[in-house]
User: Which sequence fits this backbone?
């Protein structure tokens, strides 16, 4: 009989063992080997049987075993030590506690989190990054509160049909069987968050609390009895279908998320966040809720509240693929935020304006969550330098009139959490050979002078572990696909612990080109089966359940890998998740990545491989574009200027084969008399020494704290001071400037008489402007100057603010200055007027600029 309700009965631990529950309920165990060792000691056989999931371990361990442990003095001592160590980790001052001016706390919103495979609340890179961000914040003592949704069906687990088609299963989760506790009021009743809906009652949600080291994480869950069945399903799965379902999820995440934080701070006394960080557009509605609060509770007008809220908001965009941006029909957003559900404090027409693509090339029928995110955040960034550049182009329409380089979108390159992704053996080797690495994070260069013998031994251990585990997974997969015992005996010898191993694992959207390596199947066969320098390839990846094309790619790979002649050298391992990911990035010698440049915003799996002593073989995209240096791996040449996709794939695949045959395999199999691949090890050591400090998430989170969170907190404080006087003044100023702006004109520009000046001379410029009623203090009049290209565009202009505003006739003003001519060659300048206010984050922020009527104002000359 099938159960109609399912729940988990929690074990009651004997008194001496109660600290075990404390340890299990803090997810720090997901990156702390000593704690995992302790869990294993509870019952080694069961630990294996429950897939290293501590909650299941405690749920299934026998009372007799617990009674025995309760009297085991050695175990109790270890338990006490571990609990004490955790408490020390949770309370001791860390890096953040010595930083000046930092926010009292920061709220971090993300639709998904990859913390551990036991909490399948992630689909790919965005979630893994969010998980690594929280863990690293914890390690550094950054007071972040994570906010997300709890999906009752996590992301799907993947298996294969007999003919290699992806099958999906959505195992239900029971929050009581997870390391979560329900957030409760002081009187013990569960906290309820409510958000208004246009019809029926409000949507209710309860709030689960996870502890990620020092970081509390709040997960909203709509599966509560007060809700109608359809409302209970709002958080049923990650990225619910289209339209209403997804919009409701995002309303719950953004609006409900802020309300959950307020409840959490009220109950626990936690400091209220000064900065709100939106990890991608999905959580953007949080800005609306903060505006509502400020209007309702502080009496601000909408525009004033907008200034106050956006000053403390950071928005990170994660995709350079326009189709990857979250958009809703305007009409749908209008329906949910208007009519009977309209909040007087947040009028629906203001909301619609925030998400409008009202710039050239925009689609007037959609509501764009990224565009809203950028309007609601004073600080915006992409996730690698290249992605920052691509984003400035992609969203440049929001700052019309400014050069792409001036579009106020910066970048912080992603990083990865070492504790989660670096093999224990490598961590221990580092602790033995270069203790400063573990203690202070310094001394990376010392690795260059080590012989590398130990490193090579550990690499062998990790490769062997990958091979053994891959065989286990392969056997299981073939059994599921209907193969008999006899048909799987070949798997005992599948893959080889001594063969050069290439890993390729990722989600399967078309831009990642899962099957590029199969462009020329005969050549791939030759590479795999080369008698002197064989290569083996381990592949994993999930296609989005609705992506038939992606599933076909997986099937193509699986069919190729099923062939008898190559199946011992190329394998597809189903169900790519954090556990499989860790196994692969630790065990592979080479991490391959061949996206269509520049569609990979950053990518992080290659960073994980690098930290484990793997080498990257990748198209110059995302982070690799920034940090490939010719010695730390190989770059697959990209034909990204080429319009014909087939031709482009042909060229890039041919280059990939050639690199593997002539460089990767040759270097790997070139051994000295001791059997060591000298040149290979040089490359590995160089990779760890130079990339190590950059790819760590500690670098990333410090960058966020120093370049975004701290300045945002400063701006937010300036807005809030004196009863929000700053926000009121800035809003009034922006309104006045925007109204007057159509009257701001550059009337006349006069350059110095000498048309072929020398390097080192100074070129006097005089400009007459009409400020349309604005004061000189409201604007900056600037000269942009520098080298010009053949079309008279100033390349990477420098800016000089002109001073000495003098009255000219008709209420106009005359400005003057001197341009330094610092270089020879074609040179040009132009003039502009932009708004200027000390509380703007940069010149382009209001998106207003007045330029001289082209081509007037340009003096080109050849400098000698
Ligand atoms: C690291 C990781 C990702 C993200 O890696 P990309 O390089 O962006 O593809 C996705 N899924 C899992 C399971 C990971 O471990």
Assistant:
């Amino acid at each position: 009989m099938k159960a109609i309700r399912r729940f988990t009965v929690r074990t009651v631990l004997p008194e001496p063992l109660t600290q075990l529950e404390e340890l299990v309920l803090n997810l720090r165990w997901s990156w702390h080997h000593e704690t995992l060792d302790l869990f294993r000691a509870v019952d080694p056989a069961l630990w294996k049987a429950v897939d290293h999931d501590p909650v299941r371990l405690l749920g299934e361990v026998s009372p007799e075993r617990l009674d025995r442990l309760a009297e085991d003095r050695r175990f109790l001592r270890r338990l006490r030590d571990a609990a004490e160590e955790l408490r020390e980790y949770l309370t001791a001052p860390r890096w953040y506690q010595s930083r000046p001016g930092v926010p009292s706390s920061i709220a971090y919103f993300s639709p998904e989190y990859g913390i551990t495979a036991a909490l399948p609340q992630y689909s790919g890179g965005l979630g893994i990054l969010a998980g690594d961000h929280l863990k690293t914040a914890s390690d550094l003592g950054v007071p972040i509160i994570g906010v997300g949704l709890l999906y009752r069906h996590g992301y799907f687990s993947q298996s294969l049909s007999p003919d290699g088609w992806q099958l999906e299963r959505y195992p239900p989760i029971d929050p009581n069987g997870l390391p979560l506790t329900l957030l409760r009021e002081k009187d013990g009743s569960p906290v309820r968050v409510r958000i208004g809906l246009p019809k029926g009652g409000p949507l209710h949600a309860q709030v689960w609390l996870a502890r990620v080291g020092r970081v509390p994480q709040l997960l909203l869950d709509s599966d509560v009895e007060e809700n109608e069945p359809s409302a209970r399903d709002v958080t049923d799965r990650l990225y619910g279908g289209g339209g209403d379902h997804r919009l409701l999820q995002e309303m719950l995440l953004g609006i409900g998320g802020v309300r959950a934080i307020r409840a959490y701070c009220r109950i626990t006394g936690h400091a209220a966040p000064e900065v709100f960080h939106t990890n991608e557009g999905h959580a953007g509605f949080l800005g609306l809720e903060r505006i509502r609060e400020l209007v309702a509770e502080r009496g601000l007008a909408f525009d004033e509240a907008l200034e106050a809220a956006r000053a403390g908001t950071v928005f990170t965009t994660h995709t350079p693929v326009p189709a990857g941006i979250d958009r809703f029909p305007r009409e749908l957003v209008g329906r949910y935020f208007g009519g009977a559900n309209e909040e007087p404090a947040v009028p629906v027409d203001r909301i619609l304006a925030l998400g409008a693509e009202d710039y050239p090339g925009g689609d007037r029928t959609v509501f764009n969550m990224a565009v809203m995110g950028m309007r609601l955040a004073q600080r915006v960034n992409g996730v690698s330098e290249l992605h920052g550049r691509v984003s400035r182009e992609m969203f440049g329409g929001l700052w019309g009139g400014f050069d792409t380089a001036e579009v106020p979108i910066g970048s912080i390159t992603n990083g990865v959490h070492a504790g989660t992704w670096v093999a224990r053996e490598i961590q221990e080797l580092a602790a033995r050979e270069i203790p400063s690495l573990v203690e202070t994070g310094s001394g990376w260069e010392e690795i260059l002078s080590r012989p590398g013998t130990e490193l090579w031994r550990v690499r062998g251990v990790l490769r062997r572990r990958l091979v053994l585990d891959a065989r286990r997974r392969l056997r299981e997969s073939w059994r599921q696909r209907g193969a008999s015992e006899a048909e799987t005996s070949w798997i005992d010898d599948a893959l080889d612990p001594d063969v050069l191993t290439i890993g390729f694992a990722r989600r399967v959207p078309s831009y990642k080109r899962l099957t590029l390596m199969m462009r020329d199947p005969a050549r791939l066969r030759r590479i795999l089966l080369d008698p002197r320098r064989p290569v083996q390839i381990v592949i994993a990846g999930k296609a989005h359940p609705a992506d038939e094309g992606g599933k076909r790619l997986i099937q193509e790979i699986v069919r190729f890998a099923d062939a008898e002649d190559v199946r011992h050298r190329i394998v597809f391992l189903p169900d790519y998740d954090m556990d499989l990911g860790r196994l692969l990035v630790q065990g592979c010698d080479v991490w391959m990545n061949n996206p269509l440049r520049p569609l990979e915003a950053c990518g992080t799996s290659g960073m994980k491989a690098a930290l484990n002593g793997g080498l990257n073989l990748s198209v110059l995209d995302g982070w690799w574009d920034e940090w490939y240096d010719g010695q730390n791996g190989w770059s697959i040449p990209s034909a990204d200027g080429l319009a014909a996709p087939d031709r482009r794939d042909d060229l890039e695949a041919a280059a990939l084969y050639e690199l593997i045959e002539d460089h990767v395999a040759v270097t790997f199999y070139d051994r000295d008399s001791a059997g060591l691949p000298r040149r290979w090890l040089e490359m590995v050591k160089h990779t760890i020494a130079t990339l190590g400090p950059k790819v760590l998430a500690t670098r990333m989170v410090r960058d966020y704290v120093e370049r975004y969170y701290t300045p945002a907190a400063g701006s937010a404080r300036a807005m809030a001071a004196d009863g929000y006087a700053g926000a009121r003044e800035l809003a009034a100023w922006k309104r006045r400037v925007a109204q007057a702006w159509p009257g701001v004109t550059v009337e006349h520009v006069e350059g110095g008489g000498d048309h072929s000046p020398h390097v080192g001379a100074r070129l006097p410029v005089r400009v007459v402007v009409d400020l349309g009623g604005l004061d000189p203090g409201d604007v900056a009049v600037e000269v942009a100057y520098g080298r010009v290209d053949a079309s008279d565009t100033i390349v990477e202009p420098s800016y000089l603010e002109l001073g000495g505003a003098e009255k000219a006739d008709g209420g106009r003003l005359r400005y003057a200055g001197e341009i330094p001519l610092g270089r020879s060659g074609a040179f040009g300048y132009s003039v502009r007027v932009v708004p200027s206010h000390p509380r703007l984050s940069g010149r382009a922020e209001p998106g207003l600029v007045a330029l001289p009527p082209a081509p007037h104002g340009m003096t080109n000359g050849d400098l000698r």
